[in-house]
Amino acid sequence: MNLQPPKWPLKFLRWFCKDEYLDEIEGDILELYQMRIKQSRKRANAFLFWNVLRSLRWVNLKHGEMNKFGLIRNYFKVGFRALVKDRQFTALNLFGLSMGLSVFLALVLLVQNEMSFDRFHAKADRIYQVIQEFENADGIDPEIWTSWQLSNALRTDLDIVENAVTIHAASSTWTEADGKRFFEEDGIVAGPEFFQIFDFDLKDGNTSEVLKQKRSIILTESLAKKYFEFDNPIGKEVDLEFYGRFTVTGVLEDIPANSYIQFNFILSQDYDVFLDNVSENFRNLFFHWKGDPVATYVLLKDANDKDLFESKVAAMLEKYLDKEAINRHYLLGLLDLHFDSHGIDGRINEYVKGDRTKVKFLMIVGSIILLMACFNYISISTARYIKRSREVGVRKAMGAQSQQVAVQFLIESFLMVLASFGLGMLFTYFLLPYFNMLTGIELRLTIPFLLESLPYFLITIVLVTLFAGFYPAFHLSRYSVVNVIKNMTISTKGKDSLRKSLVIVQYLFVVTILAGLIIVNQQYKYMNSKSLGFNTEQLVVVEINSGQVRNNYSKIKDELLKLKDVQKVTGLTRMISGYRSGTAVEVNTADRPDEKVPMRYYGVDKDGLSTLELQLIAGQDFSGMTGKDSISVIINETAAEIYGGNNAIGQLIKIQEVAGDELNARVIGIVSDFHYRSLRKSIGPCVIGHYNNPFVSLDDIVIQLSGFNTIATLEEIEVIHNIYDTNKVMTWEFMDDMVQREYEKEATFRNVFVGASILSFFIAVLGMIGLSSYNVISRKKEIAIRKILGAGFLSLISQHTREFIKFVLLASLISIPMCWWLAFQWLASFEYRIGISPMIFLLVILFVIVISCLVIVTVSNKTLKSNPVDSIRYE
Q1: Per-residue pLDDT tens for 381-423?
Q2: Cβ distance 89 to 383 under 8 Å?
């Protein structure tokens, strides 16, 4: 490990520090550095820089540098007094810059969280997930699922593999601990190699032993408190209804939000009780080489061996499988899973994957908002500094050089940016809880984060100071002393190309962001309002978490239908929504036995179509006779097209599930297409059969309410449910909320974009105030002369606003094509999307022009109505 400290802070120390103090101060700093680097290099570097800054004291300065520092101190003093004196402009600048920096910092935190996934694992660059490709009628289908036997074979047979582990989600199960019962859904089952590969922080227990012990469970800290409160959980037992009794051997710190693998507890791989609770087919699927029930992670000895893995594993699998049964296996890096696992089926517990495009977009939005704040500063500062023309003249007359005047104004800019950064940090701290509510992500502004980011913050402050303060400082310092004192103000005649360019860029950003906001909002609104082909209103979905409820479904349904406000009840094997997928099956007909079509299977009872309001367009509904209905199916329009439209009715089809179970059934009806998956995807073929089928058991009870007395009815439903569920806990959700969960990422993106757009527009308004102020101040004498010559208020306002309208129109000519292209690219990811109407851009342009005119009238009103003599009395 390189233990050498960064050189530039030490060079800075040697530059300003007296020779007689240097050895002692530098020695102490380096000694502290060597102590801290053993814990964290980033933390040690941050503290090294901080200690150098702390040494920047008057007593430590070299004599040759004292005069320079004294002059700089005077610059700071004069700059501070100037900012306090002109409170109105200072407040505008301070508020605009701090809001821009606050939004930028919040978006940086969000992006940093997205980009930091799984980087806390020390071996992250060598950890990979094995992906297996399956071939079906649709083509290649990559999945995370592999054989349970694979990890052991990889460890023993491949020399490039250092370690491997199998992981899969634990089935949802009731748990009993310390005399209390809980329903848990977010556990995993992992091999003993888990902690040898991954670096999740174990607070209690030995990482090399916790999963090697038979029937072990490791709890997260929050789950341990939930089960045992403040007692030490090590050695205590937890009874899992689906898995048996396990002993707590370890306690983990809560899993970070930026971890791809999410869980609340880990079970050792003890399946005896579990396999007794499932079908015999599952036992064969689980332990046979041809099965694929688990995800496999590997730790390579060298990250560069990734490309060798595919050929080596193919050769290895020939030892265990027939050649024709071998699928392609390849690796996907742990650091790439968050963003690059789209299109790969399977997941371990609920997890929302990242979108690199949205992250880049948010970073661009944050940068644009910061640039807008800087442009505002330039505009407002230029207007403010024109008032100080006499000061510039006097300074130059007293011998000040241009660069010294420029340094004075740059230091004022630095003070403003520094104050804005502090205020922006404060805004971020207080607004972060609301930002977290918008995003659903737990972001924190912590002391370690601030210390580690301190060098980047300082670089940002310097860059913003130079960018925002350079033009005002050098714009004012370049004029000759004679002209400044003679005219008593700085001339603004001629083409001020930079200022006009900034105005156009400012308006370009505003038009683009506002148009983008409308398009994003309309697409989100479209997804919410588009008919899905089935009813989502007033539907309560009750999850079946107990075999007693499942076995007594008919009795429960009869009792529910007796309730006053319950209209309809049906049972489903899986609730239709983009958030939850139906069972994957393959379908063929007697005429075409080799043509297997992948479809989704949903099982219902006789009231399924009417409760969900699925439209039967041909054939008949289920009869209500279980024997007949269990060998009958209804297909959607897309599936019917494969089998000849209405001619599909009456045909015999074979439905086969991946595990091998199959059903021969007759098509009795066709329903209109409905969106059983996200609007991002097109509607595929779908089969609706009876819930009494060989593939999947009843999973949900769907209840349609009248909506008149929902709370009381839910309480009555719970009473009936708990008669048959000894756990006395009903898990339920409204159907429209369930559908909405599919669009969590879009909702987060929309919420962040809406908030950022509103703040960016607010910053733009501050910029309009600054630009208008600049125009009024620089043309004060011109306005006075026009008034003396008879110009009225409306004439002066039209003169004043005409230039701004030109800027808006010119900016729109640039921004409209750019915004249209960006929107088109974003909308292309949705199969069902809105069209981009020219009216969107027209409304935005009109809105920006109206707001600009209102701001100009408000800011210019006092000057335009003032006595013209006051403006030209010294001419």
Answers
A1: 666 666 666 666 666 666 666 666 677 777 777 787 788 888 8
A2: yes
Token pair recorded at residue 481: 């002393």
Q: How far apart are CA 786 and CA 872, in angstroms?
A: 12
pLDDT value for 163: 92
Q: At what angle do helices 838-865 and 497-529 cross, to 10 degrees?
A: 130
What distance lies between CA 253 and its chain's CA centroid? 23
- Per-residue pLDDT at 600: 85
Sign of CA dihedral 435, 441, 445, 451: negative
Please report how the helices 838-865 and 793-827 are oriented relative to each other, as an axis angle in degrees rounded to 10: 150
> Strand, helix or coil at 827?
helix
Do residues 296 and 165 make contact, with C-beta atoms less than 8 angstroms apart?
A: yes
Q: Where are the alpha helices (DSSP H) in 789-837?
A: 793-827
pLDDT value for 169: 86
3-state helix, strand, coil in the chain (%, to 5): 55, 15, 30
Return the SS3 of 118: coil
The pLDDT value given to residue 664: 85
Spatial CA neighbour of 293 closest among 278, 307, 306, 308:
278
User: Hey, how many other C-beta atoms are within 10 angstroms of the C-beta on 9?
Assistant: 20
Give the mean pLDDT of 81-87.
69
Q: C-alpha angle with apex 271: 270 to 276, nearest 5 degrees?
A: 150
Token pair recorded at residue 71: 């002059």
Integer Cα distance of 539 and 554 in angstroms: 19
* Termini Cα distance of the chain: 72
Q: Where are the beta strands (DSSP E) in 197-240?
A: 202-204, 216-220, 237-240
- For residue 625, the one-letter residue type is M
Give residue 495's pLDDT: 43
Beta-sheet pairing, 329-333 with 127-136: antiparallel
Cβ atoms of 625 and 680 within 8 Å: the answer is no
Give the Cα separation of 132 and 13 in Å (integer): 57
Note the pLDDT of residue 267: 92
d(CA 687, CA 639): 8
Cα–Cα distance, 128 to 130 (Å, whole number): 6
Q: If DSSP codes are grouped into helix, strand and coil, which group holds residue 824?
A: helix
Q: Which two tokens stand for residue 812?
A: 């729109």
d(CA 744, CA 766): 33
Average pLDDT over residues 673-698: 82
Reading the block at residue 826, the tokens are 């974003």
Region 105-134: mean pLDDT is 85
The CA distances from residue 810 to 112, 369, 447, 518, in Å, are 36, 20, 46, 21
pLDDT digits (tens, 9 = 90+) for 305-364: 888 888 888 889 888 887 777 888 889 989 888 888 777 777 776 666 777 777 777 787
pLDDT in tens, 170-203: 887 888 888 888 888 888 999 999 999 998 888 8
**Cα–Cα distance for residue pair 174/158, rounded to 1 Å:** 40
Three-state SS sequence of 745-761: HHHHHHHHHHHHHHHHH
Mean per-residue pLDDT over the chain, rounded = 79
Contact in structure between 463 and 374 (CB atoms under 8 Å): no
Rounded Cα–Cα distance for residues 866 and 135 (Å): 81
**Local confidence band at 746 (pLDDT 50, 70, 90 cut-offs):** low
What b/e string do you get for 125-139 counting C-beta neighbours within 10 Å, with b at 16 or more? ebbbbbbbeeeeeee
**How many residues would you count in the chain?**
875
Tens of pLDDT, residue by residue over 603-658, are: 888 888 888 888 888 888 888 887 888 888 899 988 888 888 888 888 888 888 76
DSSP state of 345: B
What is the pairing mode between strands 265-267 and 216-220? antiparallel
Tokens in use for 214? 């038979």
